[in-house]
Automatic annotation (TrEMBL), chains A, B:
Its EC number is 1.6.5.9. The keyword GTP-binding does not apply. It catalyses: a quinone + NADH + H(+) = a quinol + NAD(+). This is NADH:ubiquinone reductase (non-electrogenic). It comes from Hymenobacter montanus. It holds the Pfam family Pyr_redox_2.
């Protein structure tokens, strides 16, 4: 029997896309003119611009400025349908996706589920740390940082105080580096005005990186410069160190060093977010689906995977492409064209990754960028890299409104040295601070 | 014993303000130069601009644009201290406020706790309806409205469908009128593009008002015009009707009429939010503290009340002043001056309310305004009133950033006919929609 609002069966093949990140959204757009019905399923009703989540977490941007509702982005695309749902499993025999709102039939299925934090099996770490993979994560981190300072005002014990004022960031990739830089800016320009009663010499920012360099994968020049800038900003960088354990209070590093913090931010690694129902042998290490040059999941004709969840292994990329925005965008775009070719009986075009380089910002006027243009690589740093980073990120945002708002927020922050969004709304990481009778005596 | 971060005792009298709404914040500012220590206690770390909450609830504004952190607003005021805490009770004998973070001594106490929704003792209504008194309320309403439409896509039963698409607003004051207008704009300009599969003729907006007119307290002209505009926008207005009961699905009116909705928005009345510890006889009907002409709570020398929580009865205002922003602002300002006078041994100045009039917006180019200037009253309506309303609200916001952002958002919305913030982040009112096997067959 039919629902009143059943997805119209247009007699066209249906492409079901699971996940509306960079890859899934780009694919949906690329299918605009194709003779297919496009059904995007996501557990959020919006696309989040992940590279700027750290700015939401540090009160620099409003979450509304970096998200865009799918229905709004694609409101004029006639063959586009959206469903807010969680996907539980794929039934390949019936060509059906099992979701929280029922079964959705597909002719072509594209998995674009992205990646999730990798805690390497450490359940205690997963429970006690804060990730920064989603908008909700970023808001929770912002709320937690601000709540920490509010609570710190009541404490009489120095170690307890430091457990709230100190932050440990695990992972020296772009997210970890950018977050450490943003926290150091808050420490320098913003928090001392807000919390005049606290001594911000007590606030330590630790960045823990398992390897010998920050920003692994970028040029040696960029890595070195990022390290120097962070150290100049007073961030304590621990290279060649791993976190062995964290109980919500004490961080023990592989070097034996112990750090005290109630706020450990986990930016140390990601793993694919696969869906049950596919054969186990198509899942490669890192929980990514092995795909051929056309992003077809190995062993399946009608199932594709793009972006972080796909590992397209090649001599240049033996473990698949880096888990960043560009491969996802490029694969999404090409798969859109290839699906049209497939339906028209034309030969498919294999994927070739165009590496445009990488960039990371460390703070005000400080960034590093490796830019690949016309076969050459340019290394930028300092103010120029920072301007390049800002332009690339504003332009990459979705929608005129978001671009304008982010540009204005940044301009305002730049000249005022302020981050205006320091409000606590929504979830805060449950505080473990015990009643401190001495400190409570604020009478 | 002292905490590390004890509030400095400056040897100056301490004024403790409970609540940072319009009144409490204005008072804190007015005490900037006074020889006192100002301690503001609030359970949020920000001031929320309540008159625009309805726009947050209808995806027109970002919550970040209408809130301002107290610490930021008053970061340059040297005698200002903020504490994030809930106040449980006042101990008048010890001159101490009992809070969630301990006891806070006061020399002068000012209660500015505002008002809360009045459900007239109907616990079922309190549980099943959504209020719109706080930012969290507004976000929950926005999330719920959007979730309703997402869920409606799965339903096969017409009554079930209507229970999600229809909205009942109880209360014909400014909040109810403005919300009804905003929902009707979404229905006309925004939702049909987002949800092409739904028939928006099915979406009904009901506004239930107990009395014979909308916007009671404004001019007859304004009331009539608001009614006509809403009806023109397709809002079903029920005058002289009260809600007798609501079980989360069926609304029964005093007229016998029944309406079906899963979303009832309660904007029907407010009651003071008093604190325990004061003598029962100073609490007047409506849960407001009776105060003298200097906002001193009857029977106490060192305890004051301002804004919604205060009822200063006079021949012109036998039940106290209207529970809106202006009396709170004016009382806060005057009390700041009077506390300085008190400390200087000068006579206090009694409060005189300067009624500037009232305004309400119904939608694009439609508003009503009764403006009192130089002893005369002017009635504006339509486009002119809408421009006046917009200017007054932008100017009243706190901080340059918020003013700029709201102005831009409105300008953008005006020309694009769009409301951009249609994302679901955070709490949603628990849905009661049963699994609908027919509707779920979206295969």
């Amino acid at each position: 029997m039919e629902g009143l609002t059943k997805i119209d069966d247009l007699g066209k093949p249906r492409v079901v896309i699971v996940g509306g990140g960079f890859g899934g959204l780009e694919l949906a757009k690329a299918l605009a003119g194709a003779p297919v019905q496009v059904v995007l399923i996501d557990k959020q009703n919006y696309h989040a611009f992940q590279p700027l989540l750290y700015q939401v977490a540090t009160a620099g941007l409003d979450e509304g400025d970096i998200v865009a509702p799918f229905r709004k982005i694609l409101s004029t695309q006639e063959n586009f349908y959206f469903r807010l749902a969680e996907v539980m499993a794929v039934n390949t025999a019936d060509q059906v996706v099992e979701t929280s709102i029922g079964r959705v039939r597909y002719d072509y299925l594209v998995l674009a589920t992205g990646a999730t934090s990798n805690y390497f099996g450490d359940a205690e770490m997963a429970k006690n740390s804060i990730a920064i993979k989603s908008v909700e994560d970023a808001l929770e981190l912002r709320n937690t940082v601000l709540s920490n300072f509010e609570q710190a005002l009541q404490l009489g014990d120095r170690e307890q105080l430091n457990s709230l004022l100190d932050f440990v960031i695990v992972g020296g990739g772009p997210t970890g580096v950018e977050l450490a830089g943003a926290l150091s800016e808050l420490r320098k320009h913003v928090f001392p005005k807000d919390y005049r009663e606290l001594d911000f010499k007590e606030m330590d920012i630790h960045l823990v990186q398992s390897g010998p360099v920050l920003l692994k994968g970028m040029s040696a020049n960029a890595s070195q410069r990022a390290l120097e800038s962070l150290q100049q900003f007073g961030v304590q960088v621990w290279l060649n160190a791993r976190v062995k354990s964290y109980d919500g209070y004490t961080v023990t590093l592989s070097t034996g060093q112990q750090l005290i913090t109630r706020t450990l931010i986990w930016a140390a690694g990601v793993t694919g977010a696969p869906i049950s129902g596919l054969r186990a042998d198509c899942l490669l290490p890192g929980n990514r689906y092995g795909v051929d040059d056309f992003n077809r999941v190995l062993g399946y004709d009608h199932i594709f995977a793009i972006g972080d969840i796909a590992a397209m292994r090649s001599p240049d990329y033996p473990e698949g492409h880096p888990m960043v925005a560009q491969p996802a965008l490029q694969q999404g775009r090409l798969l859109g064209q290839n699906l049209s070719r497939l339906l028209a009986g034309q030969p498919l075009q294999p994927f070739r990754y165009h590496d445009k380089g990488a960039m990371a910002t460390i703070g005000r006027n400080h960034a590093v960028a490796d830019i690949k243009l016309f076969g050459r690589e340019y290394h930028l740093q300092g103010f120029l890299a920072w301007v390049a980073w800002s332009i690339v990120h504003v332009v990459s945002l979705i929608g005129f409104r978001n671009r304008l708002m982010v540009l204005l927020s940044w301009t305002w922050s730049y000249f005022s040295f302020d981050k205006g969004l320091r409000y606590i709304i929504g979830k805060t990481k449950a505080s473990l601070v015990e009643a401190d009778v001495d400190g409570k005596a604020i009478v």
